[in-house]
Amino acid sequence: MPETIQGKLDGSGLKLGMVVSRFNDFLTSHLVDGAMDALIRHGVKDGNIKIIKVPGSFEIPYVAKKLAASKKYDAVICLGVIIRGDTLHYQYVSSEVAKGIAAISIETGVPVIHGVLTVENIEQGIERSGTKSGNRGWDAAINAIEMVNLYKQIKK
Ligand code: INI
How far is 53 from 82, CA to CA, in rounded Å? Predict the structure, then answer.
């Protein structure tokens, strides 16, 4: 039988950084609420969570890199909402953020979780930040806990 390794969903003792975009704050604030709920309910102490706000999602990777490189956090959670508009701006912002987050995680070895919604319209944003399609902030927080524990378990 092959051995299967999966990260435990135990947040006790973990220190987490959260980078949150103020752009579309009426939605990102709900992603933060969802993430906090998931972290606290899985054993993370709120004193071990640092939230840093940035102007827009494009700025998230800059700060996520600083937090991950500081090695003070077990994982970094990135939260933002990018809504498609009439211009190509949406595409540039969303692809740079996704590439940036993946690169930071690979470079630093610290799990950096992509919790940035990319949606067609405000309604989709509402659906994914705590209404009928769940809360992507909650999901990102769970993924952060899982990945930290997975890295630890792989090292053993
Ligand atoms: N930033 C977002 O987080 N979401 C958006 O929907 C958005 N749109 O559509 O423009 C957005 N733009 C701002 C961008 O993230 C930067 O803050 C800005 O370009 C300055 O660098």
Answer: 15
With a cut of 90, say whether residue 23 has pLDDT above it.
yes
| Token pair 């999602």: residue | 57
- Identify whether 89 is a catalytic site residue: yes
For residue 93, the CA-to-ligand 1 centroid distance in Å is 7
pLDDT tens for 24-33 read 999 999 999 9
Laid out side by side, the sheet with 112-119 consists of: 49-54, 16-21, 75-83, 112-119
* List 30, 42, 89, 114, catalytic entry: 89
CA dist 91 and 20 (Å) reads 19
**CB contact set of 58 (below 8 Å; sequence gap of 6+):** 93, 96, 97
Whether pTM > 0.85 for this model: the answer is yes
Q: What is the pLDDT of residues 76-122, one digit of tens each?
A: 999 999 999 766 788 899 999 999 999 999 999 999 999 999 999 99
How far from 101 is each of 6, 28, 44, 106, 115, CA to CA, in Å? 22, 17, 23, 9, 10
